[in-house]
Every structure is written in structure tokens, then in C-alpha cells.
Specification:
The structure holds 2 protein chains of 2 kinds.
Chain A lengths: L2 H6 L15 E10 L12 H15 L9 E5 L5 H9 L5 H4 L6 E5 L4 E5 L5 E8 L3 H16 L6 E2 L3 E2 L11 E8 L1 H5 L3 H10 L2 E5 L11 E6 L7 H29 L1 H17 L5 H16 L8 H10 L2 H8 L5 H32 L1
Antiparallel strand pairs in A: 1-5, 1-8, 2-3, 3-4, 4-5, 6-7, 8-10, 9-10
Chain B lengths: L12 E7 L2 E7 L1 H7 L13 H11 L2 H13 L11 H7 L7 H4 L4 H8 L15 H20 L3 H20 L6
Antiparallel strand pairs in B: 1-2
Helix pairs in contact in B: 7-8
The chains are: A alpha+beta, B mainly alpha.
The structure holds zinc ion (2 copies).
The site of one zinc ion (ZN) has 10 residues of chain B, from helix 5.
């Protein structure tokens, strides 16, 4: 699988399983591991780095009982734009994308699995899943972890568990995250109090498009903070409990909005769809906020149906790296805003056509 | 000042470049500057960096405690034998340099972990530190050594290696399901 596959595809395999969850967008599991006997990336030599890469490569490309098909990409061979797109797709971290020499990533065709090598730790296993699949995604990540452990000796201690460069990851090495769309809680200004509550419960809450854009598109990522002193299953269960509580709050906030201001709400959401369909210039902020409104409108049944996966695809597409990749050249911010509007219109009209065709088909039967 | 590239818009971005060991400053407007450096990453780092975390922690502590920690770390400047890190450097960068750091700084660790974690002991899945595959691999390398020892007529060594192989083989094949 060459790199173009991963760069042009805004609708990877893992995003295609729809399960009708309109609040939970995706789940992400990450396991941090290091290989015994070699210093961590912040203090190792280039030879040691190469040794780590070779070990992981041998394990992942070994033919014996290997159920996985990974493609391998050294970061140093990638132009900036390609790196940025992999960051936007959450396949690599911004930290790895900045590297000049050391570091690489292994990705499966459906992008559900990616393994970063020599980022902060020697090995970071990631599993992405659509909707709320915390335990399922964890099991899948753990399978890869078990597979690797048959070929590699991990840095592990009875007392502290899996040893990581940063003590915030030590123990289980597990970071589980759920990405949630919370427009009603955001617009009714309940998020700050809720974030405080979640922080007290040991969770970390961030916006998806990065800090400083905390509620851009009303999408939040909730992850566990604790990795030591709790078992994997407890960590996952606590995250699930918090997420389910937040989902209940979002649902009741939506109900309240519908009761208190139905026509204002419908007007606002419809206008957002109008903007996405007809605007000629869209900043990423405006696009994210319109997409959020449209997602809410679709899920409340106030707008025409648009599939969750189409909306997820749009959320990826509005990012600067993606737009430039689509157009095939680097763009100035003002130009990006024009292409962003065009791209979104193309995507949304594709959807309209397929819905119309479906209806025609039914009529003709 | 007017943008050095388009010569139209006002310049409000300074770009410093190094050419032939000389610093050259250029002034561009926002649009042209973005054209030359188009890939400012608009995506953020991993969740809460430990640097932030530890510096927050240091700030939260009363001044006397902070001083104590400083004194304590200054007094015994133990370096990790494998990576050379001191505890002081660790507090600064928030990251360990190798797995042995966990041994080296074992005395200071519980105090730190209690604040950032739920406990100071791993209670999650246990790693089987020795797997069948690894032992089999070990046996293979030992067999090669055995051959070499026999060829070189180092019979004493060969006998030792043979015993080692037998011991490992008994581990692999006595474990019923193949599990240790
Ligand atoms: Zn200019
Ligand atoms: Zn060390």
C-alpha cells in the first residue's frame, strides 16, 4: 500500500461502520511500549533507533502466523504536507511529524491500526474505531500488543508495569479516548462545569482540532489520565461511565433546546446547512461550526438525512493539509477558504445524489 | 513598511533566514508569509504534557517543599548509569531516558507517582517476561554455539552449553499447553 492511499482517502475503512451513534464519533486506544535493553528515544543514538525499527519491522513483516498487513513509512522520507495530513487523520502525532531523521509509522489499509515507532516511546500502538467501542478497540490493540510481545521483549517491571519515557504513561501504558459531539451542552454553556467534573474524575478533556480551539465544532475528546494503580479494565470502565453520563446530559440538553426554542433552533441549523451548500468562502472555524449544527439538525430530524460517515469525512476534509492535498498544490489561507467551500459542496451534493437515486429506485420498483 | 514580496500589502511578519552565516531579516505581509511557510501545524500535542504537569505540581507545592526537593535533588546528584540522567534533569524535561531510570530514581518515584497516578504499583495485565518463542530462539543460538565449540574441540564448554540447552528444552516442552 503506497502513501497516496492514505493521503487521498478521507473515508478510511474504520470510519465506515456506522452504528447510529450521533453523539459518539469515534474511540481511540493507545498502548505505549518500550523494548528492553535500549534507551528511550530522548536519549538513544541513531544506531539504537535503527535497531528498534529493525526489531519492530521484523516482527510486523514476519510471515509466520502474522494476521496483520502493515505498510511502513519512515517519517524522514515524507514531505511536510504528507506528514500534516497523517496528523490531521490522527495516524501520527504532531511530535513525530516534526522529526528530521528518526521515527516511522506502520499503518493498516483500513487505518484502524497504526504503530508509531521511536516517537516518545519505542512503540505506540493505536487502534481507531467508529462510535463507542472502548472494550472492542482495546481488545484489538491488545492483540497486536500480544503479537509483538512474542517477538520483542518489552521494558517491564513487576512493580511499575510497562516502563515508559513519561511517568504519566507508566503502568498499563493505556490511553483510551472517546470523541464526542456535544453541541447542546456547548451552546447552553454547560461544558466548563462538566469539564471540571470530568477532570476531578481523572479524565482529560480537549477539543479535537487542538488547544485554543477548545469547542471548535463542539467536538471534545475525553481520555483517561491515570495509567498506574488501576487495571486496564477499570480504566476502560471508568471512562465508559463518564462518557455515558455526558451522553445523557447532552441528550437532555437537546430535549430542553427543542422544547424551549424550537423555531430558533431549526432556523439556526437550517442556516448552517444553507451556508455549507452555498457559501463561497469558508474558514475552518465557520466550516466546523456549520458542520456541527448540521450534524445536530440531522440527528434531531430537523434537516434532510446525511450519513454520519459523510459528516465525519467532511470534518476531516476541512483541515488545511487535506484541502491542499485535494487541490494538489500549496495554498494561501484565503485560497484555502475558497477551496474548502467548494470541497464541502462537492461532498454534500454527492450525498444528495445518492439519496435521490435511492428514492427514484424505490419509486420505479 | 510594505511587504517585500507582493509590494502591496503592509508587512507585519518578520522572517529571519540564515544565508552564508549571515542573518537576513525579511518583512512580509501575512498572506505572503503564509505562502513561504505554509505548514504551521494547526493541530495540538498529545494530552497534557508532563512538563506542564510537573511544573504545575511544583507551583502548587508550598515554597518550603519546593526548596526541600531542590536541595534533596542537589545533594545527591545520582546519574542513571545507562543514560546519564539526573533527577533534576528529569524534573526539567519530565521524561526518563531509559528503563533503568526507574531503578535509579526508585527513592523519589513514589512521591511523584502518588501525585500524578492512582497508586505506585502496577495492577494491570502482567507481562510474561519469558515467552516460548524467545526460549526457542535462545536454544537455537545455543545449538550454534555448541556446534562451534565441538568443531573447535572445546569439549568442556560444549558440555556446559548442552546442559543449558536441556534445561531450556525442559522448560518449553514440560509446560503442557506450551505455556510456562
Ligand atoms: Zn505580500
Ligand atoms: Zn536512565
Amino acid at each position: 500500500m503506497n502513501i497516496e492511499h492514505f493521503l487521498t482517502n478521507a473515508n478510511p475503512g474504520w470510519m465506515k461502520n456506522e452504528d447510529g451513534s450521533d453523539i459518539v464519533i469515534s474511540t481511540r486506544i493507545r498502548l505505549a511500549r518500550n523494548i528492553a535493553g535500549t534507551r528511550f528515544p530522548n536519549s538513544f543514538t541513531e544506531e539504537e533507533a535503527q535497531g528498534i525499527e529493525d526489531q519492530v519491522m521484523n516482527a510486523l513483516f514476519s510471515i509466520e502466523q502474522n494476521p496483520y498487513h502493515f505498510s511502513y513509512f519512515p517519517i524522514k522520507d515524507m514531505p511536510q504536507l504528507q506528514r500534516q495530513i497523517l496528523v490531521e487523520k490522527h495516524l501520527i502525532s504532531p511530535n513525530l511529524a516534526k522529526r528530521k531523521k528518526i521515527g516511522s509509522v506502520f499503518i493498516t489499509e483500513d487505518e484502524a491500526f497504526s504503530i508509531m515507532v521511536n516517537e516518545e516511546d519505542h512503540i505506540r500502538i493505536q487502534c481507531l474505531a467508529c462510535g463507542m467501542h472502548i472494550e472492542d478497540a482495546f481488545e484489538k490493540a491488545r492483540k497486536i500488543d500480544r503479537y509483538l510481545s512474542r517477538h520483542i521483549t518489552y521494558a517491564y517491571q513487576e512493580r511499575y508495569g510497562y516502563l515508559t519515557s513519561c511517568p504519566t504513561n507508566v503502568g498499563t501504558g493505556l490511553r483510551a479516548s472517546v470523541m464526542l459531539h456535544l453541541p447542546a451542552l456547548t451552546v447552553t454553556k454547560q461544558m466548563n462545569a462538566l469539564i471540571q467534573m470530568m477532570t476531578r474524575l481523572g479524565m482529560v478533556v480537549r477539543g479535537i482540532y487542538g488547544e485554543g480551539s477548545e469547542n471548535l465544532g463542539s467536538v471534545y475528546q475525553i481520555s483517561n489520565q491515570i495509567t498506574l494503580g488501576k487495571s486496564e479494565l477499570d480504566i476502560l470502565q471508568e471512562l465508559r461511565d463518564v462518557v455515558e453520563q455526558v451522553i445523557r446530559k447532552e441528550k437532555s440538553a437537546r430535549k430542553a433546546l427543542l422544547i424551549r426554542a424550537p423555531s430558533t433552533l431549526e432556523d439556526r441549523l437550517s442556516r448552517s446547512l444553507g451556508t455549507l451548500k452555498y457559501a463561497k468562502i469558508l474558514t475552518s472555524e465557520e466550516a466546523a461550526s456549520c458542520l456541527s449544527n448540521v450534524r445536530l439538525g440531522v440527528s434531531l430530524g430537523l434537516l434532510e438525512p446525511i450519513s454520519q460517515s459523510r459528516l465525519n469525512e467532511c470534518m476531516l476534509l476541512i483541515q488545511p493539509g487535506f484541502i491542499q492535498q485535494y487541490v494538489g498544490t500549496t495554498l494561501q489561507p484565503a485560497e484555502r477558504d475558497m477551496y474548502r467551500a467548494k470541497l464541502l459542496q462537492d461532498k454534500l451534493s454527492e450525498q444528495d445524489e445518492s439519496v435521490n437515486n435511492g428514492e427514484k429506485g424505490e419509486d420505479s420498483i | 513598511m510594505i511587504c517585500g514580496h507582493c509590494k502591496q500589502r503592509p508587512a507585519n511578519v518578520t522572517v529571519t533566514q540564515v544565508q552564508n552565516d549571515q542573518k537576513v531579516e525579511r518583512y512580509y505581509c501575512e498572506i505572503c508569509a503564509a505562502q513561504f511557510h505554509p505548514f504551521q501545524f494547526e493541530v495540538s500535542e498529545e494530552p497534557v504534557s508532563i512538563q506542564q504537569f510537573i511544573s504545575n505540581w511544583m507551583n502548587f507545592l508550598p515554597a518550603s517543599t519546593t526548596k526541600e526537593i531542590k536541595q534533596a535533588t542537589e545533594k545527591k546528584t545520582t546519574n542513571c548509569p545507562t543514560c546519564g540522567l539526573t533527577y533534576r534533569q528529569f524534573l526539567k524535561q519530565g521524561k526518563f531516558g531509559c528503563e533503568n531510570c526507574y531503578e535509579t530514581f526508585n527513592a523519589q518515584l513514589p512521591q511523584l507517582l502518588e501525585r500524578i497516578q492512582a497508586g505506585t504499583k502496577h495492577v494491570g495485565f502482567k507481562e510474561q517476561t519469558i515467552s516460548i518463542e524467545k526460549i526457542k530462539h535462545q536454544i537455537e543460538t545455543l545449538r550454534e554455539q555448541l556446534q562451534q565449540a565441538i568443531v573447535a574441540e572445546y569439549f568442556e564448554d560444549a558440555a556446559k552449553i548442552r546442559d543449558e540447552i536441556r534445561l531450556l528444552e525442559s522448560k518449553v516442552y514440560s509446560g503442557g499447553e506450551g505455556q510456562l
